[in-house]
Amino acid sequence: MPKDGGIGASSKRREDVRFLTGAGNYTDDINIRGQAHVFFLRSDVAHGTITSINTSAAEAMPGVVKVFTGTDFEAVGGMPCGWQVTDKHGQPMQEPRHPILAHGKVRHVGEPVAAVVAETLEQARDAAEAIELDIAELPAVVDMKAAVAGDAPKVHDDLTSNLCYDWGFVEENKTATDEAFANAAHVTTLELVNNRLVANPMEPRVAVGDYARGTGDSTLYTTSQNPHVIRLLMGAFVLGIPEHKLRVVAPDVGGGFGTKIFHYQEEAFCTFAAKACNRPVKWTSSRSEAFMSDAHGRDHVTKIELALDGNNNFAAIRTETFANMGAYLSTFAPSVPTWLHGTLMAGNYRTPLIYVNVKAVFTNTVPVDAYRGAGRPEATFQLERVIDKAARELGVDPIALRRQNFITEFPYATPVAVEYDTGNYVATMDKLEEMGDLSGFAERRAASEAKGKWRGLGVNCYIEACGIAPSNLVGQLGARAGLYESATVRVNATGGLVVMTGSHSHGQGHETSFAQVVADMIGIDENMVEIVHGDTANAPMGMGTYGSRSLAVGGSAMVRATEKIIAKAKKIASHLLEASESDIELKDGAFSVAGTDKSVAWGDVTLAAYVPHNYPLEEIEPGLEETAFYDPSNFTYPSGAYACEVEVDPDTGKVTIERFTAVDDFGNVVNPMIVTGQVHGGLAQGIGQALLENCAYDENGQLLSASYMDYAMPRADDLPMFSVDHSCQTPCTHNPLGVKGCGEAGAIGSPPSVVNAVVDALQSGGKDVTHIDMPLSPARVWAAMQ
Amino acid sequence: MAQVSMTVNGKAASGDVEGRTLLSTFLRENLELTGTHVGCDTSQCGACVVHVNGEAVKSCTMLAAEAEGADVTTIEAMANADGSLSTIQQAFQDHHGLQCGFCTPGMVMSASALLKDNPTPSEAEIREYLEGNICRCTGYHNIVKAIMAASGQDVSSIAAE
After folding, report:
1. pLDDT tens-digit readout, B34-87
2. Which of A10, A28, A509 sits opposite B161 (nearest CB)?
3. Where are chain A's structural domains?
4. What are the boundaries of each domain within chain B?
5. Among A302, A303, A306, which Cα is nearest to A181's?
6. Would you tell me which CATH number, out of the four given (3.30.300.30, 3.10.20.30, 3.30.1330.90, 3.40.630.30), belongs to the domain B2-77?
7. How many beta carbons lie within 10 A of that of residue A132, not counting itself?
8. Cross-chain residue pair B37–A680, CB shorter than 8 Å
9. How is residue A242 annotated by DSSP?
């Protein structure tokens, strides 16, 4: 049994109390004396030349402080991209300039063209309507394959084409892969779309810029998953503010799901304008603005082929994907379809040869970047769909085909450049069959048929790579950042601890689970540990929270710093106990001399550190505060097996989820309650992608799904209760906690099982449907049935 | 500008507002009751739900002027008099019915209104009632469970930790 409040305990979340009583402190709750408000005038066309922009009438409107246009930002840098991908010919990707406010041309609906700063938001909005903006509309490119055709209009005139890069991975395997296909006993081919999504955290983005004239210090309050990254990108690459003169605060953040990783124009604008206007400047996104300014997710068009030998062993995989970048490169966009996608194409299976080709394409749409899973859902979906299709073509059981090809020996080096340290795919599949009662499916199908519904069962596995990086590896792959994490553990004189972490919590419950880890290591009550995050003024340089990395990387930094604390505290204890340091043991918050009844309490040691009257001053410094930076030696590899049962209404095509079972191997688990909650949320987003959500553009680049009236967010009555298990645990071998990461699994693992289930249901109804592109709306399912 | 007066969380409140000022804006900006959140601009998300004269209302769909003389309750007044969490709030914490916390005030206000009308709602009734409250974090599983638990129903058979 876990110690109360320690590792393994389902401690209730301490942050809940403020959230449940309206006492949270989200960025929009921050108002600074004297602040003005900004409203952005955004392009309503997808592509055009700005022929004139006249702001004089707007400047004369009541309450207007200043009106900004693109020319005001000629002296500062553009929005930076944090990852440079090298194409299959060894050339760097094409990287267009990304202005803070559009200059010369507009390239997507929603691109900010001008900004009005006024006393109130209403006055700013009113004045924006008085800006005389003329845009000569140009033909837009929306479809990716059309965008790379020879005669397509160019999104960026100064680039050679709309192709950002043409990436081959692993290029050296291409010929051998092609040969394996030529010699295959069976080849299954599937063409599919991984639909464009909008992350939609419930809190829209907000930025408040502040400038202290007396000291020259700038502060940005922002809805970010990684305030240090924003400080570095915005300070060094956009505005030229050194880090010691720039503070970035991300307080309570209402969900992120990836889309709050990136550095956005509005953040740079508010920081810049606060100085230019000499007063704080606040921007609060409306939901409508969020749809056309938050980075979107997914949007891949893929052809995948699976080659099998005569015994149904996987022989090779070959894929060709078009990945939408949108009009500009968002912060980490180039890495998503490449290093976060191609490296996962082995999945849970022994496939000796894999070749992945990705063409990243500029279009006149909102930039696309990481969304929960980021590349890994796209890899999992195509792989698990093509395996299901292959099983159907070969007339074999889809679970048996998977089992036959499972990787069973670890560590396992895949042909796509990663090495899985641990896993047990047989165990998770066994658990899935048991928990999901898959043997009872036939009976449930009969019951559904008796009431006129077609029932389908869909199963899939998944593997993901979490805990990015190591830094030296990602540097070779084109990352323009390190991907370590940091922690400072500050022990106070009376024994309480403050842990300052570079990770950021925006729903994950770090304030609770991180405290459990440190409390467990020392053997004190978890309430003696306070977790501080989200402010560059007090946390050491950190890389933030995304890619399910917080516990695996940030937690490891915290463990290392706490180990240093314990080592020093033992020295102090040995002095107080007049014993050899090697004989000192720490247990349940007390230091004792091994084999004796002599002991000293944690609080006595911490007090001695700060009131060093009886203290080995000649050997060690007073105080008890340590910092550690942790750079992982490998990714972590969570895995799992999911099962979905659906009913399809033959009259309407409507799909309902009847059962959903998720079995995950996350390695060791610190707070099972929180882990389960993370899976639930991921499942909802994955099922949302599969059945409901779709970000749609028309052929002119108009965004058709720009509100909750048009973009189908999963609601309570769209989803079932979930059955979730994480008892299959193969701990990570290379981080001190043995943890793997759980934040994205649900979103990665669920879409294929939903689609597999619907195809199974339609087949059971006598419909020869082999694939339907997501979302599986009633209209699409019904059309496929006809 | 016109003056508007109402009772908010048991206290008299008044302020000068434009005709177009929403009740949610009045609560957040004029009264600094920032527990009421705004997550959309089409009255879909429900983060802004408050009680007006005892009824659950999306405060972004109501003008401040329309609330003249009304009795308004926000999330800030939902805890017990001694500051401890109310039954519904406690159930949300006990059953992990919140993650980022942004939709939570609206969820609690809606759940409270539901249980007033229907003291022991079924799972299906809860899910239907929450149509107007969007949560992006929890997948609703633990929210539904928390509301069932708050209504005194046995939720031990519902999977979760």
Report:
1. 999 999 999 999 999 999 999 999 999 999 999 999 999 999 999 999 999 999
2. A10
3. 27-138+202-255+260-293, 300-469+634-785, 484-630
4. 2-77, 87-150
5. A306
6. 3.10.20.30
7. 11
8. no
9. -
The torsion angles phi and psi of A384, rounded to 5 degrees, stand at -75, -25
Distance CA A199, CA A109 (A): 18
Instruction: Give all strands (DSSP E) within A197-343, no chain letters.
Output: 197-198, 206-212, 217-222, 246-249, 281-284, 296-297, 300-308, 314-326
What is the predicted pLDDT for the residue at A388? 98
Asked if A656 and A647 count as a contact pair (C-beta separation under 8 A), the reply is yes
Q: How high is the pLDDT of residue B161? A: 45
Q: Please write down the long-range contacts of A244-247, taking CB distance under 8 Å and 24 or more positions apart.
A: A245/A216, A245/A217, A245/A218, A246/A217, A246/A218, A246/A219, A246/A220, A246/A271, A246/A536, A247/A217, A247/A218, A247/A219, A247/A220, A247/A535, A247/A536, A247/A537
Summarize pLDDT for A313-331 with one digit per residue, the tens.
999 999 999 999 999 999 9
Q: What angle do CA A275, A250, A551 make, to 5 degrees?
A: 150
Closest to A658 measured CA to CA, from A668, A644, A671, A670: A644
CATH code, residues A300-469+634-785: 3.30.365.10
- Contact: A716, B127; criterion CB under 8 Å: yes
- Give the pLDDT mean for A113-126: 97
* CATH of region B87-150, choose from 3.90.950.20, 3.40.50.11930, 3.40.190.10, 1.10.150.120: 1.10.150.120
Q: Which of B28, B39, B85 sits opposite A287 (nearest CB)?
A: B39
Comparing CB atoms, the residue among B85, B100, B143 nearest residue A202 is B100
pLDDT at B157 (0 to 100): 85
* Alpha carbon of B69: minimum distance to chain A alpha carbons (Å): 23
The full DSSP string for A531-579 is EE-SBTTTSPS---S-TT-IIIIIIHHHHHHHHHHHHHHHHHHHHHHTS
Q: Give the residue from chain A lying closest to B98, CA to CA.
A: A16
pLDDT of residue A676: 98
How far apart are the C-alpha atoms of A370 and A547, rounded to whole Å? 9
> pTM of the predicted model, to two decimals?
0.97
In this chain, the answer to whether the domains covering A300-469+634-785 and A484-630 adopt an identical fold is yes
Q: Residue A328 — left, alpha, or beta (φ > 0 → left; ψ -120 to 50 → alpha)?
A: beta
Residue-wise pLDDT for A597-654, tens only, equals 999 999 999 999 999 999 999 999 999 999 999 999 999 999 999 999 999 999 999 9
- Residue A582 CB partners (closer than 8 Å, separation 6+): none
Q: Are the C-beta atoms of A516 and A6 separated by less than 8 Å?
A: yes
Instruction: Tell which A residues from 497 to 526 touch B, by Cβ distance under 8 Å.
Output: 506-509
Instruction: Give percent of chain A above pLDDT 90.
Output: 99
Q: Looking at the domain covering A27-138+202-255+260-293, what would its CATH class be? A: alpha beta
Angle at alpha carbon of residue A247, lines to A241 and A248, rounded to 5°: 110
Tell whether the model's pLDDT for residue A3 goes beyond 80.
Answer: no
Report chain A's mean pLDDT, rounded to a whole number: 97
CATH for A484-630 is: 3.30.365.10
User: How many CB atoms are closer than 10 A to CB A175?
Assistant: 11
Count residue pairs from A and B with Cβ separation < 8 A.
195
Residues 6 or more apart whose Cβ sits within 8 Å of residue A742 = A548, A638, A664, A666, A669, A675, A678, A679, A726
Residue A269: both structure tokens together: 């604008």
**Contact assessment for residue B48 and residue B60, using Cβ atoms and an 8 Å cutoff:** yes
Q: How far apart are CA A6 and CA A516, in angstroms?
A: 5
Predicted local distance difference test score (pLDDT) of residue B159? 64
pLDDT in tens, A667-685: 999 999 999 999 999 999 9
